[in-house]
Specification:
Helix 1 (3-32) packs antiparallel against helix 5 (86-99), helix 2 (41-54) runs parallel beside helix 4 and helix 9 (157-179) packs antiparallel against helix 13. The chain is mostly helical. It folds into 2 domains: 1-153, no CATH class; 155-321, no CATH class. It is built from 17 helices and no strands.
Length: 321
């Protein structure tokens, strides 16, 4: 597969996943802000949390200080200067899909294009029906793209790069959501909100065998091996996709990307709630985010490196000679 096609598959999938998660975070925040518990200070904190997630922590201090519902929705949904906004993410995904048009099934392309058109159509009319309706459309469309991709694309290199993009982004955003938690002493409704942002409220309730506690909620999002949005599940899927691409046997590695993926997978597989209680939630989450950043850099270096123009020209001349 061409390097530029591999990169397009990767970033298409990452941006669809990002748009879905940001839409869910905003929808949960909007709904929770109406609760009695979320009034006043808690509502302001909820919208600051949503802004931090929706800008990947790049929101300026002035924006955090003025994190009202209207301001956060504008910045995280429509702001084209915010590369993580829903509009930006979907536009980036569609641009990558255009470059891959011959590689995508008609169904995948139609869903991506329809999502883009829906967002453009609704951009000036969200206030008419309320944000929840619009955000749910985005969530449903993004989830449909993931499902149709799995159902209609051959599970070969292009699909594996989509898997990489999806699970790298999902793990990163799950960790960023946990990073916004102040402490394990926060009231349970705050942790319930974080679970809902990760689609983990119902699965966590079903898996609970004792009285629920904040450390248990954090451990579920980080370490549960069967929940598709846990960091552990995502890390294992990343590791598996890289091994399918290189055809390297399990528990071995041939490049830095596989080495770092295996290290991350081990870190979240052989840990539990006691570790984040002892070492602290935030240090652990920072380590996960650092590991993911290094992993993304290694994937780019291995599969779609940036070759300087002068080097590329010299190589071409050598081949021609």
């Amino acid at each position: 597969m061409l390097s530029r096609h591999a990169e397009s598959f990767f970033w298409l999938s990452r941006n669809v996943e990002r748009a879905e998660t940001v839409a869910r975070v905003l929808d949960v925040t909007n709904t929770r802000a109406m609760d009695l518990h979320a009034g006043g200070t808690w509502a302001q904190r909820s919208w600051r949390t949503a802004l931090m997630i929706g800008t990947l922590g790049a929101a300026p201090a002035a924006a955090l200080a003025d994190a009202t519902a209207a301001n956060v929705l504008e910045r995280c949904v429509f702001d084209r200067d915010n590369p993580s906004s829903i509009c930006s993410s979907i536009a980036i995904a569609r641009t990558n899909a255009i470059g891959l048009r011959a590689e995508l099934s008609s169904e995948v392309w139609e869903h991506i294009n329809q999502l883009y058109l829906d967002v453009q159509d609704q951009a000036g009319r969200v206030g008419e029906r309320g944000p929840s309706r619009f955000l749910r459309i985005v969530r449903d469309r993004c989830q449909a793209i993931a499902g149709v991709s799995d159902a209609t694309l051959p599970h070969v290199d292009g699909w594996n790069f989509m898997q990489l993009g999806r699970f790298v982004e999902r793990a990163s955003l799950a960790a960023r959501i946990l990073a916004t938690a102040a402490s394990f002493d926060d009231p349970w409704p705050e942790w319930q909100r974080l679970l809902e942002m990760c689609c983990a409220s119902f699965p966590f309730a079903r898996a609970a065998t004792q009285l629920q506690s904040p450390p248990d909620a954090a451990a579920f999002i980080l370490f549960n091996p069967t929940f598709p949005r846990s960091v552990n599940f995502c890390a294992n899927q990343i590791d598996a996709a890289l091994h399918r691409l290189s055809q390297t046997p399990e528990r071995a590695y041939t490049d830095v990307a596989e080495k770092l993926a295996g290290r991350l997978s081990a870190a979240v597989t052989f840990a539990d709630a006691a570790d984040i209680i002892t070492d602290g939630l935030h240090p652990f989450v920072r380590a996960v985010l650092t590991g993911l950043d290094a992993l993304v850099g290694s994937i780019q270096n291995v599969y779609f490196p940036r070759v300087p123009v002068a080097v590329a020209l010299n190589r071409s001349e050598a081949v021609a000679g």
